[in-house]
Amino acid sequence: MTPVELSRTVLRAVRCAVDDGELGVVVPGRALVTAPGPGGCGDYATNIALQLARPAGQSPQRVAEVLRPYLLGAVGVSDVVVTGPGFLNISLHGAEASVALVREILRSGVRYGHADRPTGQLVQLHARHEVRAVVFMDVVARVLRSQGALVRTSCVARPEREWTEVLGAEVDAYGRPDAPAPLEVNVRPVPAAPADPVSLGRDAGRWALLHPAAHDRPRITAEYLSQREGNPLFRVRYAHARTRALSRNAADLGFDAHPGDVQDVRELEIALADHPRILAAAATQHAPDRLARHLLAVADAVTPLFPTVLPRGEEKPSAAHRARLALAEAAGTVLAGGLSLLGIDAPDHL
């Protein structure tokens, strides 16, 4: 069962509960399934009970208890535990959860974690005339669109040419709006001034502006151009490049990726499973820094896997090598998709 299939399973459970008269709600169009949070357990967790509590006129705990038996009866589900205020923690049979996760990522590609269809949400983003605000708005718009929203961006004045040509920040409109009333500036991160991120180029300049939280002043330094471990942007891009190199080297050795059970990689699996939740949170909170920090966590979690992917010496490729290669490729896919949303290149060679 893939994460997408599990999401559909959760929605089926809600629909069955409604049909049986256990819940009086409109079945939502989407159920968010993520890695369990602190205090959680199992392979995945969903907050669907918290989402439905108010329209159902019941407590989240009660809604969760209503849904639990329906989920327990689903094929592939081995256990369901209610934790916290009403989170449903779902365990799948054996190694099925990790295999399904990798398959889902490789099937979805860089769109893993994106919405399947438009949500109908309309968002107007309006930024002041400042380089960080314009780049910040550009990425918030990208992430919102990945979650199915229709977004229009504008700036109080025409962005400087290098903001567009060097940093790649796109704006739909600028200047005085046609609307009867002026638009409210709703994108206002702490400015980058007096430093100039344009001098760093597109990738390093954007990372320097986006990695800190909106309320923190970014540090515009040449350290983001260095190719060493102390540079977080280098770690993310290097991890992605390593996953691509492993795929090329495996092809030279005559084997390819095939999802399977991989031991001692729980931290990486949690980070990969958490990607859809991070994208949703970054969109809702207008916080591209959450995505940047998440990509760094994925990069750091996948790095210890690299030495184990390819056979050593006279060793022949095995099912374990194919499974580790599939997991590495899944991590590389998440890194590539996340960097793309940040407007940063994910090179295959570094």
TrEMBL record:
Keyword Metal-binding among UniProt keywords: no
Highest taxon above the source species: Bacteria
Enzyme Commission number(s): 6.1.1.19
Thylakoid is among the record's keywords: no
Pfam families linked to this entry: Arg_tRNA_synt_N, DALR_1
InterPro entries to which the protein is assigned, alphabetical: Arg-tRNA-ligase (IPR001278), Arg-tRNA-synth_N (IPR005148), Arg-tRNA-synth_N_sf (IPR036695), DALR_anticod-bd (IPR008909), tRNAsynth_Ia_anticodon-bd (IPR009080)
One GO term describing the cellular component: cytoplasm
Domain Arginyl tRNA synthetase N-terminal: 4-92
Reactions catalysed: tRNA(Arg) + L-arginine + ATP = L-arginyl-tRNA(Arg) + AMP + diphosphate
Keywords: ATP-binding, Ligase, Nucleotide-binding
One of the protein's GO biological processes: arginyl-tRNA aminoacylation
Coiled-coil stretches: none
SUPFAM superfamilies xref list: Anticodon-binding domain of a subclass of class I aminoacyl-tRNA synthetases, Arginyl-tRNA synthetase (ArgRS), N-terminal 'additional' domain
Domain DALR anticodon binding: 236-350
Enzyme class: ligase
GO MF annotation terms: arginine-tRNA ligase activity; ATP binding
PANTHER family: ARGININE--TRNA LIGASE, CYTOPLASMIC, ARGINYL-TRNA SYNTHETASE
Name of the protein described by the UniProt record: arginine--tRNA ligase
